[in-house]
Amino acid sequence: MRATVSITNVISAPEHSKNNPMTIQPLPPKRFKELDQLCQKLGVTCGRMGLVNEALTHSSYAAENPGSQDYEKLEFFGDAVLKFVISEYLLERFPDYDEGQLTELRAVLVSDRILAEIGEQFNLSKYILLGRNVQTRPSITANAMEALIGAIYQDLGLFQVQTLLVRLFGHQTTVVDRDEIKDNYKAQLQEFTQSRAEGTPSYVVVSTDGPPHDPIFTVVVKLEGKPLAEGTGKSKKAAEQDAAKLAFQVLQDPTRSVVA
Q1: pTM (2 decimals)?
Q2: Residue 212 has what DSSP assignment?
Q3: Domain containing residue 200: CATH number
Q4: Is position 146 annotated as part of the catalytic site?
Q5: For the stretch 246-256, what's the b/e string if a residue is b when 16 or more beta carbons lie within 10 angstroms of its beta carbon?
């Protein structure tokens, strides 16, 4: 990944951590040692450990401990940093992918599920400060991951964040690319029809059956206004994928019948 790209033209670091004295209060030696251990796991050397501590402070803890700063602003900033770095990484790793494929890959990679999984690889939840009656959960781990990314950028700069994220997300990108793109029949169908100059398929929900808590959706996929296939699923997305899979088979084998 190029280290010459300047993120300052895309996103600006918030000023709160520079001007807010709460973020530079000395840490207890035990907490400092814990955070230093975490940084070693991540392979980074942070100079502003107060920022790391802020990135791992949940709002419930801050509410119970006056003088503490929660991670919400760093989370906001880290989310922007993460999307920028992952976008550039995907552009360079998959130069033949179109915008839709890249967008889908990025959406999965920056999701709470993936962030929480990556966080737990180095036991991130162990280091998050929570209020007395709050239990850790994947969404909190994911938010803390974003905040930590923001803190590391503010402390060490773009190159260090790029290096860290490529290392953390490299394997996940391979897995997501295989699972989310290669088995994404909507993407495959669109690529196939556009390669033959037939336009972009459209999807229409034709019925919803079953009780509200367990619906079954039926979707028809059309090409140039003509129905190709019909699919069902427990969500609109699942039904669209089912319809796209069948439509792809129809287009590859013209002897197969289409929906009426």
Answers
A1: 0.64
A2: T
A3: 3.30.160.20
A4: yes
A5: bbbebbeeeee
